[in-house]
Each structure stands twice: as structure tokens, then as C-alpha cells.
From TrEMBL:
Keyword Cell inner membrane among UniProt keywords: no
Gene Ontology MF terms: endonuclease activity; hydrolase activity; nucleic acid binding; RNA-directed DNA polymerase activity
Protein name in the entry: Integrase catalytic domain-containing protein
Gene3D superfamilies, sorted: 1.10.340.70, Ribonuclease H-like superfamily/Ribonuclease H
Organism of origin: Dorcoceras hygrometricum
Chain ranges of the Integrase catalytic domain: 205-319
GO biological process: DNA integration
UniProt keyword Transferase, yes or no: yes
Top-rank taxon: Eukaryota
């Protein structure tokens, strides 16, 4: 009866003013309209049902097949039971994939308890079938658990749970994740649930030369005179650039020494320094040094090089 009440509340705007029949395989529910003694909850139900023009009709469970089909949890027959050409393909693939081929030998010799043979198929814990790396077997099974209409392009967890309930192979998680991530239908039709990106705002313009600078490294360059990287320093106000050759394995201490020798010595200490999250700039020595000297260090947001776009553009020209 609770189900009937719920459905009438959901479809109330469709059913008001129309006569309809409620068919149920619960014989006790079919007598609800003529029941004389009611509990407080049943009385509230009767008060709600008084709005509708309906008839409760009993139908035996054997004849109520439509409701039974809709009320049961859907199971994939092709996943729950191995049918068709799939067993043949799996059996054939076991002889071509070296990993299950070795497991079959161990199972035949009784040297493993995790795997066993049954009807030519290799099973593991949970009575899951080992799927060899052969032709498109694995990809076809992932497609069956993700693309078909009854699963409706579910996410990674649901797809993997459905697949792992009956099948097994090494790195199944990674393959399912890659397949779902690259599914064209999911990318085109699914709604983005992530929080939208914040408003991008330009950095404030400095009022004097060398008040604010941007700093970056170009590394992995061919060695020349013992140097394998370049420290790029750009003045935010005048766009003047200073390029300092550095050793390929330049440490934070060495970077600080070169910065003072080639920048601070000529232009003084800047008030603001904008850089990416390179280990040279995130080391405690570097941050504590400039904090002590009164300069503010600003790091760009991860995976957003446009924060330090001025230096990135100079880097591309310099390279």
C-alpha cells in the first residue's frame, strides 16, 4: 500500500479527475477500500485517497508479469551467464596469452588455489572467469558493461563493479578507467558536475620599474660553457628582461645567489615576485630569505601557466 500511495503522490497531477485501475498481486491490499477498522496511518491514507477516482483490482502473481519485470533488479544475461561465442573465444585466447597459459599449467598440477579449471575456462576467486589478452575480448566486455542501453554509460565505479562481478584480468581497473574517460558519448552528453572555474583576473600593474618581477627557469638545454639552464627575470613595468645562465642542476641556494648577483645588485629588491611552483622557488631557504628581506612571493596556480604568461611568452621566444 505504501508503494501505491507514493505513486499517487508522484503522478497526482496526471490522475486527478480521471478514473483508473490499480492492479496488485497482494490480496490484502485489494480489500483496503472496504476495510472497516483502520489504524491512524491507514486513516491518513484513506483521507489522501479520497481525492482520486480509482479501483483496486487483485491480479494473481503469475499473471502480474509486467509489474514483476519492472520491480526486479535488472541483470545482464550476457554478463551473468557465459553464452554464445564468448566461451569459445576465451578458451582460444588462453593458449595465446602467456600469463593465463602458465596459470592453466599450475591449476592442472594443483599448485595454486586461487585459480582452477572448469569446462576449459580458468576461474578465480568469486567464480570469476579469467579473460585473456586476445583480440578484442576485454574491450568487448568493457563495452558491454558501459555502452549498452541497460547500463546507460555508467561511471567508472559502476562499470568496473558490473564487470568484476563475473570477469577478471590484470589491470582491469586501469583499462576500465581509460575506456570510460575516452568514451565519446560520455564526453558529449554528460553534464559537468564540477564547480566552475573562478574568474581570471590580471595581475595588478606595478607603479615603478622593478617593483614587480616575474621569474622562471628554462631547463634541459644543451650544455654550453658548463651551463645547462637559464633563469629568466622580466620586469613587470618596463618588460625589460634579464637572462642568467645557470648550471643544469642548479640548487635553490645557487639560484638565490645568482638572483642577488645579477638582479638585486643592479635594480634593488623587488616588492613582488611572481613565479611558478618550481622546486627552486618553493624551497624554505628561498621563501624565508625573501620574507626576511620584505619581498612577497606569489606562485601561479597549478596547471595555469597563463598566470605567469609574460615570462612564458619570453621563454618561447628565447627557446
Amino acid at each position: 500500500m505504501t508503494t501505491i500511495i507514493h505513486c499517487l503522490r508522484v503522478w497526482r497531477h496526471y490522475l486527478l479527475g480521471a478514473r483508473f485501475i490499480v492492479k496488485t498481486d497482494n490480496i490484502a491490499t485489494s480489500y483496503f477500500q472496504s476495510q472497516k477498522k483502520l489504524s491512524p496511518k491507514q486513516a491518513r491514507w484513506q483521507d489522501f485517497l479520497a481525492e482520486f477516482d480509482y479501483v483496486l483490482e487483485y491480479r494473481p502473481g503469475k499473471a502480474n508479469v509486467v509489474a514483476d519485470a519492472l520491480s526486479r533488479k535488472a541483470e545482464l544475461e550476457s554478463i551473468s551467464t557465459v553464452l554464445g561465442d564468448l566461451p569459445t573465444g576465451i578458451k582460444e585466447g588462453l593458449g595465446h596469452d602467456p600469463v593465463p597459459k602458465e596459470l592453466v599449467k599450475l591449476a592442472e598440477q594443483g599448485k595454486t588455489r586461487q585459480f582452477w579449471l572448469e569446462d576449459g575456462l580458468l576461474y578465480t576467486q568469486g567464480r570469476r572467469i579469467y579473460v585473456p589478452k586476445w583480440e578484442e575480448l576485454r574491450k568487448d566486455l568493457i563495452r558491454e558493461c558501459h555502452d549498452t542501453k541497460w547500463v546507460a554509460h555508467s561511471g567508472q565505479k559502476c562499470t568496473r563493479a558490473l564487470l568484476e562481478s563475473s570477469y577478471f584480468w590484470p589491470q582491469i581497473r586501469d583499462q576500465v578507467e581509460l575506456y570510460v574517460k575516452t568514451c565519446l558519448v560520455c564526453q558529449q552528453d554528460k553534464v559537468e558536475n564540477k564547480q566552475p572555474a573562478g574568474l581570471l583576473e590580471p595581475l595588478p600593474t606595478s607603479e615603478h620599474p622593478w617593483d614587480s618581477i616575474t621569474l622562471d627557469f628554462i631547463s634541459s638545454l644543451p650544455k654550453s660553457d658548463g651551463f645547462g639552464s637559464i633563469m629568466v627575470v622580466i620586469d613587470w613595468f618596463s618588460k625589460y628582461g634579464t637572462f642568467i645562465p645557470c648550471p643544469k642542476d642548479c640548487t635553490a641556494e645557487e639560484a638565490a645567489r645568482l638572483f642577488f648577483k645579477n638582479v638585486v645588485k643592479y635594480w634593488g629588491l623587488p616588492k613582488h615576485i611572481v613565479s611558478d611552483r618550481d622546486p627552486h622557488f618553493t624551497r624554505r631557504l628561498w621563501t624565508e630569505l625573501f620574507k626576511f628581506l620584505g619581498s612577497e612571493l606569489h606562485f601561479s596556480t597549478s596547471f595555469h601557466p597563463q598566470t605567469d604568461g609574460q615570462t612564458e611568452r619570453v621563454n618561447s621566444l628565447l627557446e
